[in-house]
Amino acid sequence: MDLTTTLHRGRQRTPDRAATIFNDRVTNYRDTLDRVRRFAAGLVGVGVGVGDRVAILSLNSDYFVQYFYATPWAGGVLVPLNARWSVEEAIFALRDCDARVLLVDAAWAPQAARLAEACPSLRRIVYADDGQPPPGLTAFAELASSSAMDDVARGGDDLAGIFYTGGTTGTAKGVMLSHDNLLVSALGGLAEEFLTRGGRLLHAAPMFHLADLAGLNTEALIGGTHVILPSFEPGSVLGAIGAHQVTDTILVPTMIQALVDHPSFHDHDLATLRRVVYGASPMPSLLMARAQDALPDVGFLQGYGMTELAPIAAILAPDDHGDQGHRSSAGRAAPHCEIRVVDENDAECPPETIGEITVRGSNVMLGYWARPEETSVALRGGWMHTGDGGYMDADGFVYIVDRMKDMIISGGENVYSAEVENVVASHPSVVMCAVIGVPDERWGERVHAVVVLREGRTLDPVTLRAFCKKHIAAYKVPHTLDIVDALPLTAAGKVLKRQLREQHSR
Q1: Which stretches of 132-230 are assigned E, i.e. beta strand?
Q2: Per-residue pLDDT at 92 exceeds 80
Q3: Looking at residue 131, which CATH number applies to its domain?
């Protein structure tokens, strides 16, 4: 199996069907494949060889879809980077994966010179946006006007992409996923009726996140249409659903809340919408009830997983949302994998017993890029150790009770506390710190810093936020701050974060 198979199939079966709709551009499957063939040739022309990494820093667009297919068509490796990162974070990832080509949109174009200077492996920076490219950048259209090339047709266990995820060591890790990893996960989603056959999928969540890219894969398998918005804006989402007869979309709970809270919600025609897939963070029960009342004809489906699982491991089907007990779960193992909960010795726990959630299947990553030791720890015994604490009931439903890696999920974004702590600890006023997630009505969780100050020093939240924004993305920056005399520690000197969460949640 290889990623480009879906595009070949779409061109053969439904060549005139719209593959992408972006702004006023509608591109059918025949023309999308032609642009992919030509852009792939352009990538080869600027030096991309088999296995070379091609990165992108961009909001959603039809160019993003063409990049997603052209890179493997040319034999390259996808590296979608988080467009919300700071420049420092982008430089780290580009260097880490030794990227050869980088695509940027208008928002990232002003940083191109700095990125090129800091990343000598980059041979070309491509302007993947409308209008004339800034000086020094190559126009997407220029590469896409090359003579078409045949598909290199890498697939199976070949590396398809490197997807960066936050690390508990304080730096991002590149998750290596094969073609089979990505397509097996998509096929599992189809088996659970993730999306409507022959439908239209609205991309409003960021396409650089694997959750939305998984939707792209799944929709492509059934030859559907991708309706694309640059980013999430509730009014635009509501308008696009009616204007383009959208049947499905993938959102995080905070986005769903923004939709049902929007003052013009009831003014829009949402009759075609059939499925809302959500994940990334738990759905509060009150919000779930509101969403179901507001969209009574829509089936809600939850996907639980992580980047290392390409990304789906468990699915809570629409029918299970009517059961109040199961509604609080993350669902049951998806058709393509197994889930078990294990103790500290990797022995399977009895039902209702809390342990670590582990996953085995063809969706499990190849490993972490250039991190063999971390790979062997995560994949020991042939199971992916998620770092999530939870239990399984007698019916196979999985319940998440804690995040063993102290990951914070704020507005659907993963924030790793160790990364933020490294930045906070570097402030000259801070002698010791801990970063935790505390409940927040809008974001689900907000990033909260608890710090011990150096004698005679002061620090306020505004000053801390300004300092942190120089080093990390805005969504990772602490929203709130508590100053304490000392942090609670274990006998081994580790911070008792569970105790902090109990003390400082408000």
Answers
A1: 138-139, 159-165, 173-178, 200-203, 225-228
A2: yes
A3: 3.40.50.980
